[in-house]
Amino acid sequence: MELSKKVKSITPSQTIEITNTARQLKAEGVDVISLSAGEPDFNTPDEIIDAVNAAAKAGHTKYTASAGLPELREAIAKKMQRDNNLTYDSTEIYVGNGAKQVLYNIFLATLNPGDEVIVPSPYWVSYTEQIKMVGGEPVTAVTGEDTHFKLTPELLKAHLTEKTKMLVLNSPNNPTGSVYSKDELQALADVLAHTDIIIVVDEIYEVLTYGTKHVSIASLSDEVKARTIIVNGVSKSHSMTGWRVGYACGDAELISALAALTSQSTTSVAEPAQYGAIAAYNMDPGETETYRAIFERRRDNAYEKISELPHVTCLKPEGAFYLFPHMQTCAETCGYKTVNEFVKDILREKHVAFVPGSGFGAPEYARISYSLGEEKFNEAISRIKEFIEEKT
Ligand code: PLP
Fold it and tell me: Which domain holds residue 351?
């Protein structure tokens, strides 16, 4: 069948590809350890599942308003006030099928063909592909270890053109684990002052920071808030990836455009799942602290273990649940030209799956998720170490 030019230009998500290969090997009985997970390994808290069951039993199994249930939008408004000190009216909140779809709809609703969007790299795989899908032009601003993979005002300035419509920020960051400080965000916002450039900030890993507190760029001033669209959701904070609930907060006109798009595409998010998100945001925030503390311990362990791998260097991540080590030197020392080939052979020979950095715009690196028990994680690192020792 002849597919569209647009769809042919899209690179499928590499993370999902590796996860699928690992899943397939597992199904064949191979003892695979996957370090490619982009989701917490806990189950959704019982309290949320109970709320969903109760809602479904009570008949909340229908279409809802395209911007989301009013009760959920109110719960999100309260969460934004409580956690971010930001005031949003319900008309400034839109609920979509996960942050991923929310982002896609934002790009669709704001970008015209040729509009440029600055995306700092390393970036989460979907930004650039989604921007291309709607006819926008992703402009990559390459960051490095010297700035902890964070965009600087100088780099931002260097990538601004007359066609720049938007900047995408992601903090805490997937894949690097970097977290922007208030001052760093302020410096970026200052560059954009007196322009009409939109800031889309993906805060999906908001609750997972270790030692550094998450700051939302929208909280810097009313002027910055007016140009910012915050994207977030329950996937990572409440281990609800499969429920598909995310949201956007920002300009009311954009929010109604997102609702209009939804009314002609998916109608709404599944009603029971929205009830799950209401329960999540009404839950004691202390519960997410329990998960955060577990991830912090895992981060410390993961960082210690990765530092033991020969020829591999890694910055200590401050958020999310990924390490982003430099692996090119190690790959070359083992006789591989690229990290891609190196990673593939580790999966084939040692049955450890993780994602090469090429999909994140950083081919010399790889992303290692520590969203799994420490014992399994440590075994995976031992297998990688064994592989490196055998090849050198
Ligand atoms: N944004 C980032 C940076 C992510 O890592 C992910 C998931 O991996 C998403 C958004 C998507 O989240 P959701 O499950 O809400 O679609």
Answer: 5-43+287-391
